[in-house]
Each structure stands twice: as structure tokens, then as C-alpha cells.
Design a protein that fits this description.
Order of helices and strands of chain B: HHEEHEHHEEEHHEHEHHE
Number of domains of chain A: 2
Largest sheet of chain A: 7 strands, mixed
Strand order of the largest sheet of chain B: 2-1-3-4-8-7-9
Shape of chain A: globular
Helix content of chain A: 40-55%
Number of helices of chain A: 15
Largest sheet of chain B: 7 strands, mixed
CATH class of the largest domain in chain A: Alpha Beta
Largest interface: A-B, 39 and 35 residues
Structural class of chain A: alpha/beta
Strand content of chain A: 15-25%
CATH superfamily of the largest domain in chain A: Thiamin diphosphate (ThDP)-binding fold, Pyr/PP domains
Distance between the termini of chain B: 54 Å
CATH architecture of chain B: 3-Layer(aba) Sandwich
Oligomer: heterodimer
Shape of chain B: globular
Chain lengths: 357, 256
């Protein structure tokens, strides 16, 4: 049977994806440009149908700590926000990473710093992939470039979160959140039963049966020698993730002289850039990282041996460009083109930037 | 008669509840936390709900509470226990969920989470141990520190002109429609211990009714932070804390 197709906003696709992938709970607080996620969920009211809890919290701080509580029960729980709200969640994300819990967080990024603007931005890259909160930890980061991917990455995000017992961030932006596109919708996946959770996730808070000792979820270890072991275990886990979970796609890189590297909305714009540039005889290709952590270091390094230069396009002052430079070394020039503060770059201005090589 | 012959269930007048683990508690000798832990554990044992109870520990002296209760336990970030408990209870409706928090955790950094969990009427138990000081970090001024009381950060006594008066958060949450049972107890005499246990038992029983937060404050001591002997600290508690934090029920369930 053909899949159901709907015209949806990116934010709505996140919400619909959550309901349909068997999500147990969403906890969130309104902030532009992602409030449609909470609004859509409250309109759909999934609790009577799937048992999914939807709760408007008193703050982003409370939201992420509700997620911490739900994740401690091995429930599929998530939150969403936009940049200032995500800043407030950093403490909670660090605790979730430290306690090795699975959880999903969505950032529909707006321009900063401070209260900034409500227009799209990609200036939260550093915060997301370099830590954000305190301590050595990583967020598995997915960067959707379409409304379909907003929908798909909710399920994928939960899969990765439970596979690695680690928080996953969907790093979106105000453009993908607000734009409407067609989306293929799946059938409802049932939520996990308590029996399934008890069997699959023996660490979960389910109430201590007589057959085992009590489960403890904590990120505290007062003995430094033990805490170092905790960190070593985390680093080993991150290494496995780096080896197995890198996702990216390429466009017209086979004969490219100039490689564009861009993610999310910028990658969509860069597809048009390729078309315009090639019409002018410029051989331009694109690598789009789908996972920002783990970063597609190796494929970028491989491609750098075939091109004359690399241009990263970001809606920021240049953040991912640092990871591209680390991937490439000094093999070829790596430049950055960016607009920020909520301004979206046009394809023509990016073509002009390509011509500076 | 040998010792073994004497130690039989029918001869026991007191034993440690198996809901407490064998771990040695880190609390200072004379501190009330151990007693409060025991009362909660005894209530869990007597109600037969060990396999259906999930606790949430705070940041503060009782940060390691999870080591002492033989029930599933989450360690929350500072002040966030009511938010953590909110999600656990909503996802495990038939479980008994409680937070265990001190005055800095519940009444300073976690004020927002406390008030909103109480206002939403989350069906949880909040155990609030108030000793008027930040114990774990070395005895600094808490939101509940009494006027003129000396602490590490109010070395000349709490100046209410500068810092405001102590926050009576228990009276505050009692005003909210989401709280079902609000009481203030103490555990420094055997009679008070028995009363406090009854209050904790009622709080846990209330969770079966689905009628909102049961909030039990325990006015306790901090002999280390107050720089008094255990006995003197209990005398000081009675003479100074209780006039400001009077014991008794503040909000009781209405008969229906």
C-alpha cells in the first residue's frame, strides 16, 4: 500500500513523527520558531490513542529534567526548543549524557547571541557538537535538510539514543521548522510495553523486584579514580559511535574543482548553487553532513585530495568550517561563507564567493 | 539461652528495615537525615510497595540517598527533583514516586520546579528536610536560615534588610490547589519520630488517591553547620527553629 503523504511544516513533522514512532512522552516550553511542535501535539492529544504523555513544562530547565526522569525509566522521551531555551537545557543534557540515558532533543535554531532574532540560524553548531554543557561528553547530532527528514530523524534519533544510551540532538533551524513540504507518513508504531522495557533495559527505573538489587541512575562519582573510569567508558562509546554512525550525502562531487560543505538549510541552498555555478562553467560539488557529530571527517579528507578548494556555507560566522579544516589539514584552501543574525544567504551570493578561489 | 535462640522474629522489638541497604551512611553523627531515611524505608516496607517505588534524590547532603534505600532511585540535578519525579509519575502512574530534598535544593534553586509541580498537582510525595543551612557545601546561608543566624556566608548573622526573611515555602505550597496534604514534622524526640512516621505513611497512602502532592517538611538539625553538639543542636532547633517553623499539619485532606 502506498504511504500516506501530507503537506506539513517541519515542526509539525517532528511532532507527527514522535506520535507515530512510539514516543512515550514530550515535555516542552513555548519558544519561537518551534512552538508548533507543542501546539501540534496538544491538538493531536495522543494520550488516549497511544498513551504518549504531552506536558507543557514551566521552563526549558524543567522540560529537560522531565526528559531526564522519563529517560531514567527507559521511556522514549523528548523535548524541543530553540536556541535560548536550548542554552537553558545544557545542564540537563550534561546530566543525561553523564548518566548515560537515551533521550531526544530538537533545536530549531534561531539567530543569536542573547535573545537574538526569531529568524533561522546555524550558530548553535559549536554548542551542540563541542559539548555545550559541562564535562567531556558528546551529543549524537542529526542535521535534517528537509521536512521529510524532520519526520524521519525522530525515529532514527530514538534508535541511536537507545543504541548508545546517549542524548541525541536534532539540529534544525527556523527555516526547516517553518517551511512546508510533503512528507511520507508511517503507520503507528506501538509504544514499548513495560515488560519489554524491563527485559531490554535492565538498568531502567521500573521499581525494584525481589530478583535484583536496586537500580540507580546517577552521574555522581566522588572517587576520582572511578570517575576517570566513567569518562574512559564514555570515550570508548563515542569512538564506536564515530566508527559506525557517520552519515552524509554528496552531490556532483565526481568532477568537482570546488567542494561545498554545508548542512541543513544551507545544504538545500547549495544544491541550487551547484546548478547556477555549473551553468557558468564552474565545476562545483557538495558534501552534506547528516551527522554533525560524529562528523564525516574521512569522506571530506578523501574528497579534499580531488578538489582545488573547499567552501563551507553556514548561517553563522563560521563554526563547522573548523571541523572541515581539521578534516583536511593544509591540503587545499578551506574558506567559509556565512550570513548570520537570521539572514539566509542567496544562491547568487554564494556563487560569487566560489569565484574568489 | 544462646544468642541465636533469642534472636527470633517473635522476640524482636526492633530491627532495621530491609528497605534500607547495608551501606554505611555518610551523614554526620547526630544528623536527622538517617532517621528520616529510616521512617520512609519503614513506610515502604509496611505498605509492601518496595517493587513499585521510585525515589528521586537531590543535590545536597542527601545526594547519596540512593545508596541507602533499596529501591530504584534517580539522582537529579540541583533543585530539579520535582520535574524529574513529574515525568516518572506520569509515565508510571501506578508507582509510588517520591522526592527527598533539602532546603537549598527545594526552596532556593528548585523553587520554580517545587511550585509548579505542586501547582499541577503531581501525584507524588515530596519529603523536605529543612535544617536552615547548606550542609554539604560547608554551612552557607540557605533560604530558610533564620534571621540573625550565623552561617559561612552570613558570618554576622542573617541580615533580613539585605537578604530578606527566611522563606516559608511549606506555607506557600499549601496555598496551591495542587497540594493535597501539607504537614511539618520533626524527628528529634521519640514521640516526634512516631508522629513524623504517621505523616509520611499518610503521604504515601495519598498517592493511591490521585489527588495531588503530599508535602512533608521535616524541621531538622545540622549540628556540623550550626557548630553545636548533636544534643545542643536539638535544643537550639526547639528554641529557635520551631517558633518560626511551627510543627503540625498545614493542610489536611478534607473529609468527603
Amino acid at each position: 500500500m502506498a504511504k500516506e503523504i501530507r503537506l506539513m511544516k517541519g515542526n509539525e513533522a517532528i511532532a507527527e513523527g514522535a506520535i507515530r514512532c512510539g514516543c512515550d512522552g514530550y515535555f516542552g516550553y513555548p519558544i519561537t520558531p518551534q512552538s508548533e511542535i507543542l501546539e501540534y501535539l496538544t491538538v493531536q492529544n495522543p494520550y488516549p490513542k497511544t498513551g504518549m504523555v504531552v506536558l507543557q513544562a514551566e521552563s526549558e530547565t524543567a522540560s529537560i529534567n522531565m526528559v531526564y526522569g522519563g529517560a531514567a525509566c527507559a521511556k522514549k522521551v523528548m523535548t524541543s526548543s530553540s536556541s535560548p531555551g536550548i542554552s537553558l537545557m545544557q545542564e540537563g543534557l550534561s546530566y543525561i549524557a553523564g548518566a548515560e540515558l537515551p533521550a531526544l532533543c530538537v533545536n530549531v535554531v534561531r539567530g543569536g547571541p542573547g535573545l537574538g532574532t526569531i529568524q533561522p540560524s546555524q550558530a548553535d553548531y559549536f554548542q551542540t557538537v563541542k559539548g555545550g554543557g559541562h564535562g567531556d561528553y558528546k551529543l549524537i547530532t542529526l542535521a535534517p535538510a528537509s521536512v521529510q527528514e524532520m519526520y524521519d530523524f525522530v525515529g532514527l534519533g530514538f534508535d541511536l539514543a537507545f543504541k548508545y544510551r546517549n542524548p541525541v540532538m536534532i539540529l534544525s533551524d527556523g527555516l526547516i521548522g517553518q517551511v512546508m513540504e510533503k512528507v511520507e507518513i508511517d503507520d503507528y508504531k506501538p509504544r514499548w510495553t513495560d515488560e519489554y522495557i524491563a527485559e531490554k533495559f535492565p538498568w531502567a527505573m521500573i521499581g525494584k523486584p525481589a530478583s535484583r538489587g536496586h537500580n540507580i541512575v546517577t552521574s555522581l562519582e566522588l572517587d576520582s579514580a572511578k570517575q576517570e573510569q566513567v569518562n574512559l567508558r564514555l570515550q570508548a562509546k563515542y569512538k564506536v559511535c564515530e566508527e559506525n554512525e557517520v552519515r552524509y550525502e554528496t552531490f556532483q562531487v565526481e568532477d568537482a574543482d570546488i567542494l561545498l560543505v554545508a548542512y541543513g538549510s544551507s545544504a538545500r541552498i547549495c544544491q541550487k548553487v551547484i546548478e547556477l555555478a555549473r551553468a557558468e562553467g564552474l565545476k562545483v560539488g557538495l558534501l552534506r553532513p547528516i551527522t554533525l557529530w560524529p562528523f564525516p571527517t574521512k569522506p571530506i579528507n578523501e574528497l579534499s585530495k580531488k578538489v582545488k578548494g573547499i567552501l563551507t556555507v553556514e548561517m553563522s560566522a563560521g563554526q563547522m568550517v573548523e571541523d572541515v579544516r581539521l578534516s583536511v589539514g593544509c591540503a587545499v584552501p578551506v574558506k567559509h561563507y556565512g550570513r548570520f543574525g537570521g539572514i539566509i544567504p542567496t544562491p547568487t551570493e554564494i556563487v560569487e564567493a566560489i569565484k574568489t578561489f | 539461652m544462646t544468642r541465636e535462640e533469642i534472636i527470633k522474629p517473635e522476640n524482636l522489638v526492633y530491627r532495621r528495615t530491609p528497605v534500607l541497604t547495608d551501606n554505611v551512611m555518610h551523614y554526620c553523627p547526630g544528623c536527622g537525615h538517617g532517621t528520616v531515611h529510616r521512617l520512609i524505608a519503614e513506610v515502604i516496607e509496611e505498605m509492601g510497595i518496595q517493587d513499585k517505588t521510585i525515589g528521586v534524590a537531590p543535590v545536597g547532603c542527601s545526594v547519596l540517598a540512593y545508596n541507602y534505600f533499596d529501591v530504584d532511585f534517580v539522582e537529579a540535578a540541583h533543585g530539579r527533583a520535582p520535574a524529574v519525579a513529574t515525568a516518572i509519575k506520569r509515565l508510571h502512574k501506578n508507582h509510588f514516586v517520591f522526592t527527598y530534598q533539602g532546603d537549598g535544593d527545594l526552596a532556593a534553586i528548585g523553587t520554580g520546579e517545587t511550585i509548579h509541580a505542586c501547582n499541577r498537582g503531581e501525584n507524588i510525595v515530596i519529603i523536605f528536610v529543612n535544617n536552615g543551612i547548606y550542609g554539604m557545601t560547608g554551612g552557607q546561608m540557605a533560604p530558610t536560615t533564620l534571621p540573625n543566624m550565623k552561617t559561612a556566608t552570613s558570618p554576622y548573622g542573617r541580615d533580613v534588610e539585605l537578604m530578606g526573611p527566611p522563606l516559608k515555602i511549606t506555607e506557600l505550597v499549601a496555598q496551591l490547589p495542587g497540594t493535597y496534604y501539607v504537614t511539618r514534622q520533626a524527628v528529634y524526640t521519640p514521640a516526634l519520630v512516631r508522629k513524623a512516621k504517621k505523616a509520611i505513611r499518610l503521604a504515601f497512602e495519598n498517592q493511591k488517591l490521585n489527588k495531588g502532592v503530599s508535602f512533608v517538611e521535616i524541621v531538622s538539625n545540622c549540628n556540623s553547620g550550626w557548630k553545636l553538639t548533636p544534643v545542643k543542636s536539638n535544643e537550639w532547633l526547639e528554641e529557635n527553629m520551631l517558633p518560626f517553623y511551627p510543627l503540625g499539619d498545614i493542610k489536611v485532606p478534607t473529609q468527603e
